[in-house]
Design brief:
This protein is an alpha+beta fold. The chain has helices spanning 3-23, 39-55, 69-73, 89-94, 161-174, 186-194, 210-223, 256-269; strands spanning 28-32, 35-38, 60-63, 79-87, 100-107, 110-118, 123-128, 133-138, 141-145, 156-159, 179-181, 200-203, 226-228, 251-254. The longest helix has 21 residues, at 3-23.
């Protein structure tokens, strides 16, 4: 498989999205209350799907803004390309940099490869399980990342504002001296943990969907992170809501020593 081909595709359209946003060349509509889509999402969705379909005609494509996206999940493809054209649409609308373009490959319901591109920073992360390697491309310069568990000098916890409102008090009983923060894209949050900038990421509200998770989970698993739910069960693509394709599991991503130390304490204070 030509992974560089996909890297170039994701970066090219991510840069185009950034230019459209900077020029104000987009419109917004509300899909459901509080869930917005822009014409940038729709343009990227079409462009990415067209290229993936041309290159991999035997594979399925699960793209967020495809009107038939839910049908594709049930068509029985072994290999399924999962596309989130803009992960963090609210950040794009607000003019923040915390959005990303994501493409992931799900093979027999296992995340095999992932691409996460942050247009505002011109940084692309990609990795595949075949080589077991993760790369970072900044502009035109690509480097292999050697991922090792970071030293735990200061506990950093990523927690969304919604989860903080609902569970922040209980979670702070566990991480008493931690610093808490958040950012937009689900994929970029997971990359914070991969890169050692955060110790753990907790996502507890069960709204994240298949196309949100395949790319970042592929990279996280290659990096050696533990990706589990509150019971310690590995995240999987069987516990999926049949209509929304949202994960029924809560999402906890962290390094093994952090998970081992803190998961039992989280189990004691959280009832979800």
């Amino acid at each position: 498989m030509n992974y560089q081909l996909i890297s170039n595709l994701v970066r090219r359209w991510g840069q185009q999205a950034y230019e459209w946003r900077q020029a104000g060349d987009f419109s917004i509509k509300e899909k459901t209350p509080g869930d917005y889509v822009t014409t940038i999402d729709l343009r990227l969705n079409e462009a990415l799907v067209d290229s993936i379909r041309e290159w991999f005609p035997a594979d399925g494509i699960l793209a967020e803004e495809d009107p038939q996206v839910y049908d594709w999940w049930y068509r029985g493809y072994d290999r399924l390309w999962c596309i989130d054209p803009i992960d963090g649409t609210s950040d794009l609308i607000a003019g923040n940099l915390g959005y990303a373009v994501m493409v992931g490959l799900l093979d027999k319901k296992e995340p095999r490869a992932g691409w996460i591109y942050a247009p505002g920073m011109d940084i692309l992360y990609f990795g595949d399980r075949d080589t077991g390697k993760i790369y970072r491309r900044i502009g035109d310069i690509t480097e292999e990342l050697i991922i090792t568990p970071p030293p735990q000098l200061q506990m950093q916890v990523i927690l969304s504002s919604k989860d903080d409102r609902n569970y922040g008090q209980q979670i702070r009983q566990v991480f008493r001296d931690a610093q808490f923060y958040s950012l937009g894209s689900f994929g970029l949050k997971i990359m914070e943990v991969v890169l050692g900038k955060s110790s753990i990421y907790l996502y507890l509200n069960r709204r994240v969907k298949v196309w949100d998770t395949v790319a970042p989970l592929a990279i996280a698993e290659i990096a050696g992170l533990v990706c589990c739910d509150l019971d310690g069960k590995p995240l999987n693509y069987s516990d999926i809501h049949p209509e929304t394709l949202a994960h029924l599991q809560v999402v906890i991503i962290g390094w093994a020593d952090v998970i081992e130390r803190y998961l039992p304490q989280l189990q004691q204070v959280l009832t979800i």
